[in-house]
Specification:
The protein starts with a helix and ends with a helix. The chain has one domain. It is built from 4 helices and no strands. It is an all-alpha fold. InterPro entries: Lipid_A_biosynth_N (IPR011499), UCP028440_lipidA_biosyn (IPR014546).
Length: about 110
């Protein structure tokens, strides 16, 4: 049985322990921030009993996506760089639209 598990244990050690450095820690922090956007969205939707995308979702997306983008650049992963780079454009645009909508709503009330 140990002959079967040894390669798997070695792989886990290599991936999760041997290469652990500050960049990997940053990657995990970034992924945690990025994941929080789903938690925030889920809680907001459950409270409203409908699908809701709160502003915090877009801020977590922007923060986590930026950290993941930096991490991807350091790791030189072209697929990850392209994916996170495109996402950042979308997150900034959504925050821009929200800000413009709020500004227009404030102007309407005055």
């Amino acid at each position: 049985m140990t002959d079967v598990l040894a390669p798997l244990i070695n792989w886990f050690y290599t991936v999760f322990v041997a290469q652990l450095d500050a960049w990997v820690v940053l990657g995990f922090v970034a992924q945690a921030c990025f994941t929080m956007r789903f938690v925030v969205q889920w809680i907001a939707s459950e409270r409203a009993k409908r699908s809701v995308v709160p502003v915090a979702f877009w801020f977590f997306s922007l923060f986590g996506g930026t950290l993941l983008f930096i991490y991807a650049i350091q790791r030189q992963d072209p697929v990850f760089i392209a994916g996170q780079g495109m996402g950042l454009i979308i997150y900034v645009r959504n925050l821009w639209l929200i800000a413009a909508e709020r500004k227009a709503a404030m102007a309407d009330t005055n």
